[in-house]
Design goal:
The complex is a heterodimer.
Chain A: H1 11-20, H2 24-31, E1 34-36, H3 63-72, E2 78-83, H4 87-91, E3 114-115, H5 120-125, H6 128-141, E4 147-152, H7 154-159, H8 163-174, E5 178-181, H9 191-207, E6 222-228, H10 234-244, E7 248-254, H11 259-264, E8 270-273, H12 276-290, E9 294-296, H13 302-313, H14 318-346, E10 350-353, H15 359-362, H16 364-369, E11 373-377, H17 384-390, E12 399-401, H18 406-416, E13 420-423, H19 425-433, E14 438-440, H20 452-467
Parallel strand pairs in A: 2-3, 2-4, 4-5, 6-7, 6-8, 8-9, 10-11, 10-13, 11-12, 13-14
Antiparallel strand pairs in A: 1-12
Chain B: H1 16-19, H2 23-37, H3 42-51, H4 55-62, E1 68-69, H5 76-84, E2 90-95, H6 99-112, E3 119-120, H7 125-130, H8 133-147, E4 151-156, H9 158-163, H10 167-176, H11 198-214, E5 228-231, H12 238-252, E6 256-258, H13 283-288, E7 294-297, H14 304-312, E8 316-319, H15 325-340, H16 346-362, E9 370-374, H17 377-389, E10 393-399, H18 404-415, E11 424-427, H19 431-440, E12 445-448, H20 453-459, E13 463-465, H21 483-504
Parallel strand pairs in B: 2-3, 2-4, 5-6, 5-7, 7-8, 9-10, 9-12, 10-11, 12-13
Classes of the chains: A alpha/beta, B alpha/beta.
């Protein structure tokens, strides 16, 4: 593989042409979010985590999506109340396939939608009284729920409700943690602030207010998985590797997670972070408060998995280090077989990625392992530290787009003609109509897991399935 | 360290459907549960699980006043967006927080398996304090320049409603700032999420768009034409249904304007070209629709205010309730005949006969079968009526958007047939209520949308997906449910499920397969 991409295309010219379509004020603002990666660059040369421009069709979501949809929603034995009007909870109901095991409606609640369903009178007179009643009714009907969270929708912060007071009062009354989350959708510029707010509420309302579960015994090999939402079972196909090298995963944040796991997390020896963007906050807090080190890892594709396993093992004793080598060796035949089967079908294929806050860089080497090239990448809600971490994975000439607009992505794809677009559901059908293979890379297009060695085989199969499907040869009628 | 062999293989790749059933994962789940989850004892979970199925639980569940659990309704803006997207070249512009738009687009896309275009004014905290005027001014300019729509339909999220942004004033302001040309159509509707539901939003946007075109001074005193307007309402089967309506109109030879026709916009071809806009009611036809002699709404509850507005414009108005089946289609056709003065075409008479013939062929399999139906108010009414025609027994009819008036309407339909004697209407109730109903008063089949799959899992009552949203089955929305053809489609869908269920229940060799019949 070469060290650069897009060498036969005037990518800068393409960016300029796309920018020309904007009114002047917006053109200047958007220009800062687009760049072509230079060799040896320290970051991607784009501005990020800035307000989206009105009217351009941003692909971003909101703080509520970041808190309820991402961080809190998957904690399976708590009930997460979408507090406000009915819609937010309705649209995010079962949308992310955060797999979990449990008896839904009895001891687990992940695929349910609880809402205070605000009416006009709640807006006018305030919703605290209703919230009291909502909590009472939930406690009555779902006695096995371990706790509740209150996920604020836009009106809550605008009408001056005091959900913290309600949470305190009701928590004392029912004897369970109730976490008020100020994740109103208008806060911040994307999902990202919602992640941060959610992290902070775990700090303030779980760590500060609850005790680790009695009967939990620590070992020197205790780690956590932080920032894995178990989409399609990702956390499980990661956990299995950590267990196989001799570690104990005492908590999953937050896919298939429980309140007990959150509470016991401060007992970990090290916090292992997959999605840095959504959960670095709590890891930094635990480092500061409890002295727990944290480490980022990457379980996409065999190169990164092996590197990560070795890095993780290096934090422990020789047995763990030896185990890591054994595990890597044990999976090598699978890796070899997957690459032997799929690389010839995928080699040299060009990919454009546009997803959330981790995958635009984390999946890159999984594609590289299959001989594919990333020619463009960008994030919905990354910060500068994400773009710094991105250069390592990308080649010179890669087109970088932050908070891309519908128009830009369409034009960039037309200009660069990748063999695969890897983005979200809102983008999927746009590109399939254009005759381009597409994979949803938030939801794994209803497949998965993609993490770990087991996941890599699925990832490879799915990319092949998309790119080499006969349908793409039929888009043009022969008459 | 585990010595269990790796189950994954390149030859036969195991994904989540089978991977997690392998022994290494089953052991992992058990370890996680035993050592780290600190869950309730299995016996306790089983006990509570049984309790949730009891009459006692049902009573508690029905005593709820505050919490809504698994509702059958969304909020206003998605309905408004849907209505707007049925007009030619129209880009919905959602004024307020941006996350909402991502949700609406996602929801509609997951159902129709089509792109869905809409923009947000991306209001954040500063706009919450100072109002979103600047967002509107910049936003309209950007949307107009980038996406070249023929019309921008503005609606609101609850954020903009709570802070009280005035759309009409803002749009005038934006036009004065040259965001869009003065004569560029920018109809609008306030669509607060805390009032009504998606069907209310549909109504508000429809009225907003019609007011925009119909309240212009130059249009007064024009004589009525022979044309008839049909408003389909919020409908997951719109692609199939609107085309069916057009086919029927063509057979009649009458001039029909479908007000908001998403059938092409939500069903664009895979021919290498992405069409951001396709088809839809032309703006010209929308303006001319004011002078139509009549407006027929296919869904009363999606068009309460709109229909009143049409009436005020001197039109003859007719309310239907998602006409499904023989009688409801008869009424639709007779209404069209009456309004147009043209007889129902012979070809449709034939279709009717074929449908009745099909029902006669299959009626034995509906007899005595108890159904629960949930969804939007009009869908529930239409479905209930058709089930009664088939000789089936609708038992629980539930709609979170249903009002007291709706309950009465459903009861009236039920009372019209001996097969409706066990039926009850539940307005304002949700799918967690329905769960209690299904456990305490079981039915044979459940008719609704994809969200009902959790009820199917819990109660083992087979689900038939016949209304929005359908995320986990593909392409049914391309087939009509309206008209005699549509009724046939619906009946076949229900029948297939009944037959599959019969086969599944008679498939144990030597035990139940006595009735595993080749001919049914």
């Amino acid at each position: 593989m070469s060290l650069s991409v897009n060498q036969d295309v005037d990518v800068k010219g393409l960016v300029d042409k796309v920018l020309e379509a904007y009114p002047e004020k917006s053109r200047k603002r958007r220009a800062k979010h687009l760049n072509v990666l230079e060799a040896e660059a320290k970051d991607c040369g784009v501005k990020s985590n800035i307000k989206s421009i009105p009217g351009v069709m941003t692909i971003r979501g909101c703080a509520y999506a970041g808190s309820k949809g991402v961080v809190w929603g998957p904690i399976k034995d708590m009930i997460h109340i979408s507090h406000g009007p009915v819609g937010c909870g309705y649209y995010s109901w079962s949308g992310r396939r955060n797999y979990y095991i449990g008896d839904t409606g009895v001891d687990s609640f992940g695929t349910m939608h609880f809402t205070s369903d605000f009416q006009e009178k709640d807006i006018v007179f305030g919703g605290d009284k209703k919230l009291h009643k909502v909590i009472e009714e939930i406690n009555d009907l779902f006695p096995l729920a371990r706790g509740l969270s209150i996920q604020s929708e836009c009106p809550i912060g605008l009408i001056g409700d005091d959900i913290e007071a309600v949470a305190r009062a009701k928590s004392a009354e029912i004897g369970k943690p109730i976490v008020p989350v100020r994740c109103e959708g208008f806060r911040g510029v994307s999902q990202s602030l919602g992640h941060h707010i959610a992290n902070d509420t775990i700090r303030d309302w779980i760590f500060e207010k609850t005790e680790p579960v009695a009967g939990f015994e620590s070992t020197p090999y205790d780690v956590t998985i932080i920032g894995d939402y178990n989409i399609g079972g990702d956390a499980w196909s990661s956990r299995i590797l950590l267990e196989e090298i001799g570690l104990r995963v005492i908590a999953q944040w937050s896919g298939d997670g429980t309140l007990a796991e959150l509470e016991n997390t401060p007992k970990a020896k090290v916090n292992l972070i997959h999605c840095y963007r959504s959960m670095n906050y709590i890891a930094r807090h635990m480092e500061e408060k409890f002295g727990i080190p944290w480490m980022e890892y990457n379980f996409f594709g065999p190169s990164q998995i092996a590197e990560s396993l070795r890095k993780i093992a290096a934090l422990f004793d020789d047995t763990i280090k030896e185990n890591a080598e054994k595990v890597i060796a044990r999976y090598q035949p699978l890796v070899d077989a997957v690459i032997a089967k799929y690389k010839p079908r995928l080699e040299g294929k060009k990919v454009m990625i546009y997803v959330g806050g981790l995958r635009p860089r984390h999946v890159a080497d999984a594609y590289h392992d299959l001989g594919m090239e990333i020619i463009g990448t960008g994030y919905e809600f990354a910060h500068n530290d994400d773009y710094q971490r991105t250069t390592h994975y990308m080649k010179e000439g890669t087109l970088i787009y932050d908070d891309v607009t519908g128009f830009e992505l369409e034009e960039f794809v037309k200009g660069l003609r990748p063999d695969l677009v890897a983005s979200g559901i809102k983008e999927k059908y746009v590109f399939q109509k254009m005759g381009l293979p597409f994979r949803q890379m938030h939801s794994w297009d209803y497949s998965g897991p993609y993490h770990g060695y087991d996941g890599f085989a699925i990832f490879a199969r799915d990319m092949d399935m998309a790119i080499n499907n006969p349908v793409w040869g039929m888009t043009k009628a022969p008459f | 360290m585990s010595d269990i062999a790796v189950s994954q293989s390149a030859d036969k790749v195991l994904d989540h459907f089978t991977l997690f059933r392998q022994p290494e994962y089953q052991a992992l789940f058990e370890r996680k549960k035993q050592e780290f989850e600190f869950g309730h004892p299995d016996e306790k979970v089983a006990e509570v699980s049984e309790w949730t199925k009891s009459a006692e639980y049902r009573e508690k569940n029905f005593a709820r006043e505050a919490v809504t659990i698994n509702p059958t309704k969304a909020c206003q803006p998605i309905g408004a967006m849907f209505a707007a997207q049925g007009f030619e070249g129209t880009l919905p512009f959602v004024h307020g927080s941006q996350g909402c738009v991502a949700y609406y687009r996602t929801h509609l896309t997951r159902h129709f398996k089509e792109p869905n275009s809409a923009v947000s004014s991306s209001m954040t905290e500063d706009a919450a304090v100072f109002g979103g005027l600047n967002n509107m001014i910049d936003g309209l300019a950007n949307a107009y320049t980038l996406y070249k729509p023929k019309m921008i339909a503005v609606l609101t999220t609850c954020m903009a409603e709570v802070i009280g942004d005035d759309l009409g004033g803002f749009i005038v302001n934006a036009k004065n700032k040259e965001s869009v040309p003065q004569d560029f159509p920018v109809p609008f509707a306030h669509t607060p999420a805390f009032v009504g539901s998606h069907i209310t939003g549909y109504d508000n946007m429809m009225k907003g768009i019609l007011s925009h075109f119909w309240d212009k001074a130059e249009q007064f005193d024009v004589p009525k034409t022979e044309s008839i307007n049909i408003i389909p309402g919020f409908d997951g089967y719109a692609v199939g249904n609107n085309r069916e309506l057009k086919r029927i109109a063509q057979m009649f030879g009458i001039d029909v304007t479908i007000l908001s026709d998403v059938s092409d916009n939500f069903d664009t071809p895979g021919d290498g070209e992405y069409r951001m806009y396709d088809g839809g009611t032309t703006l010209e036809a929308t303006a001319a629709a004011k002078h139509a002699k009549a407006t027929v709404t296919m869904q009363e509850y999606c068009t309460t205010q709109t229909l009143q507005f049409c009436k005020e414009k001197g039109q003859d108005v007719t309310k239907l309730n998602y006409p499904l089946g023989v009688g409801a289609t008869d009424e639709l056709l007779m209404k069209l005949a009456e309004l147009s003065g043209k007889p129902v075409p012979d070809a449709l008479r034939l279709e009717r006969g074929r449908l009745v013939d099909a029902i006669a062929d299959s009626h034995t399999y509906f007899h005595g079968k108890r159904f629960a139906v949930y969804g939007d108010p009009d869908f529930c009414l239409g479905m209930t009526r058709f089930l009664l025609e088939l000789g089936a027994e609708p038992v629980h009819i539930l709609s979170t958007s249903g009002s007291k008036k709706w309950e009465k309407q459903v009861k009236k339909v039920l009372e019209g047939s001996p097969f409706g004697k066990d039926g009850n209407a539940y307005g304002g109730k949700d799918l967690w209520h329905l769960r209690s109903l299904l456990f305490t008063e079981p039915v044979d089949y459940l008719i609704g949308n994809s969200y009902g799959k959790y009820l199917e899992r819990d109660t083992k009552i087979p689900l038939i997906r016949l209304t929005y949203p359908i995320f986990d089955r593909h392409h049914h929305h391309r087939y009509p449910t309206w008209g005699y053809q549509g009724a046939l489609n619906v009946m076949v869908r229900i029948l297939d499920r009944i037959f599959e269920d019969l086969d599944a229940k008679t498939s144990v060799v030597g035990v139940t397969d006595i009735s595993f019949d080749l001919v049914r």
